[in-house]
Amino acid sequence: RAASAALVGGSVAIFGALRRLALALPQPAAVRSRPGRVWRWRNLLVSFAHSVLAGLWALFSLWHSPELLSDIQDGYSVSGHLLVCFSSGYFIHDTLDIVFNHQSRSSWEYLVHHAMAISAFVSLIVTGRFLVAAVLLLLVEVSNIFLTVRMLLKMSNVPSPALYEANKYINLVMYFAFRLAPQAYLTWYFLRYVEVQGQGAFLTANLLLLDAMILMYFSRLLRSDFFPSLRKGSAGRDVDGEKFLID
């Protein structure tokens, strides 16, 4: 447990260093001209780095040890354990970044999500159970790569509709493949095979709440990118008001 805590702390430090690096990177004029966007741009760059690293790591872990999928409750791999510690550090760092930069009001949904992820991951690290479920959930980071690119393109006002259009459809496919599909499978698995008591009950409740959040985000995404005529009350809003998705 002490070693795992050290790994989580090291991950927090790594993302703190990435945050400082993001400060030194050049910013698009559309970002520099709006003070409210500077923090959000930097925050999204760090989120993008986590998505690339964690998404590819989750894919590698499952590809390297496919037998883990046959034992979601008690399967264990060193790679999966390290990945959960790594992502726990990111969620802790991002929570602190949001709170200390006074962005809690505009990003409260992500604070709720991070609290759920941190508490669930800590329980997995302590007990050593359901680590495979966490790795499956972290496949969502593959989808988040394209979701974050979507937001960065919106913020930077890139004068290339073709680039946004291409990412829009790739993002939709990745959303189904790496967010909705793993989430649906795990929800089915937990409701059918996991005892609703103790840690199992806690993780099942977390999973069901996450289901609701994911469906809400998917609805926003569809309205914004594919059915703009269905958007309501969004006139005059811009990306400063949301972290990843806008209505």
UniProtKB/TrEMBL annotation:
It comes from Mohoua ochrocephala. Residues 36-230 form the TLC domain. GO terms for biological process: membrane assembly; phospholipid homeostasis; plasma membrane organization; regulation of membrane lipid distribution. The gene is Tlcd1. It is a multi-pass membrane protein. The chain crosses the membrane at residues 6-23, 44-63, 132-153, 173-191, 203-222. It is found in: Membrane. This is TLCD1 protein. Its main location: membrane. It comes from the Eukaryota. Keywords: Membrane, Transmembrane, Transmembrane helix. It holds the Pfam family TRAM_LAG1_CLN8.
